[in-house]
Amino acid sequence: MTSHMPTLVSLRAFEAVARHKSFRKAADEICVTHAAISHQVKALETSIGVKLLERTSRWVELTPAGEQYYPPIREHLQGIIKATRRIQTPEEPDVLLVQSYASFNTMWLQPRLAEFLQDNPDTRVRIVSTFEDGDYDMHRFDVGVFNAPPFDKRFDYSPLFETDIYPVCAPEALNSASGGIPLKELKNFLLLSVPSTWNEPDDWNCWLDAVGLDRQTMKFGSIFDNYPLVREAVLNNHGISVARAPFCARDLERGRLVRPFDISVPEPGRWYLATQKERAPNPKLDTFIDWLFEQIETDPTMRLFRA
Questions:
Q1: What is the pLDDT of residue 86?
Q2: pLDDT at 3
Q3: What's the pLDDT band for 89 if we cut at 50, 70, 90?
């Protein structure tokens, strides 16, 4: 059987459709027409002789072959994007590369980083954000902060912290002067969420189970790819979401967000510090890691733990 090399354009179209489960959203992302996306996916299926998508006027689903094909195609396209970015903006020497989720970087690390840089003027730090577990750029990585498991065999992991989760909303969402709402009224609010990754339980499932509420009676709204996005929606009073205590503490202190219920539950999963298994001695990196542990130890919303 002769192997045909699909075109990069058709693979990109398939990856976008499979990820969004929508031809329209894929077309918007790539800035082409719906017809062009459909044509490229059809051309790919014809080229390899395998049906990858089941589609109707209302929905798109991957076939079993598509489910098998999609993960490596996404991985390699992401690799091309990252390789291109690296040669366009090569890393500078002697810059610490700190990688974590966009939520940790923007909601917790960035507000504290100025203090570290002021105390260590000879150290430069570059923050690299990822939105998904497993989406790590090994070429832009000195130290990482990740929720685990899963564990990546390329890294050494050290226990870092665990924390709690609870619902938050905009102050405008609450009508009562007491600043809270009865649990039984939660079903009248729109619940916003971020999908769970790997095998971790969903945030809302954890919290609803803890307080004895039935998920089936709730009204769920938009699903967001990451916590910074859902935060913006909550700040604009579009619904209630579950937040991690360290990442919403500043918003709560400044009155931008409020807690409608005084009930917290442990976050599913714990946070670890990751370093590459094979790394040269780096005193500046060691100083940064020591500072990071000190910051976490003094943060009342975080709890250090031992593996």
A1: 63
A2: 62
A3: low
Q: What is the dihedral of CA 188, 189, 195, 200, to 10 degrees?
A: -70
Q: How far apart are CA 110 and CA 132, in angstroms?
A: 19
Specify the pTM.
0.68
Measured distance CA(269)–CA(161) in Å, rounded: 10
Closest-CA residue to 227 (of 296, 132, 140): 132
User: Any idea of the CA torsion for 131, 80, 136, 203, to the nearest 10 degrees?
Assistant: 30
In the chain, the domains with their CATH numbers are: 8-88 (1.10.10.10), 95-160+269-297 (3.40.190.10), 164-266 (3.40.190.10)
Buried b (16+ CB within 10 A) or exposed e, 92-118: eeeebbbbbbbbbbbbbbeeebeebee
pLDDT above 70 covers a percentage of the chain that reads 88
Which structure tokens are listed for 213? 């509420």
Q: What is the pLDDT of residue 1?
A: 45
State phi, psi for 272 to the nearest 5 degrees. -130, 150
C-alpha to C-alpha distances, 148 to 74, 133, 152, 199, 288, nearest whole angstrom: 22, 9, 9, 10, 21
From residue 185, alpha-carbon distances to 154, 165, 170 in Å are 47, 20, 16
Beta bridge partners of 238: none
Q: Looking at residue 65, what DSSP letter applies? A: H
pLDDT digits (tens, 9 = 90+) for 99-119: 998 899 999 999 999 999 999
**SS3 (DSSP) at 100:** strand
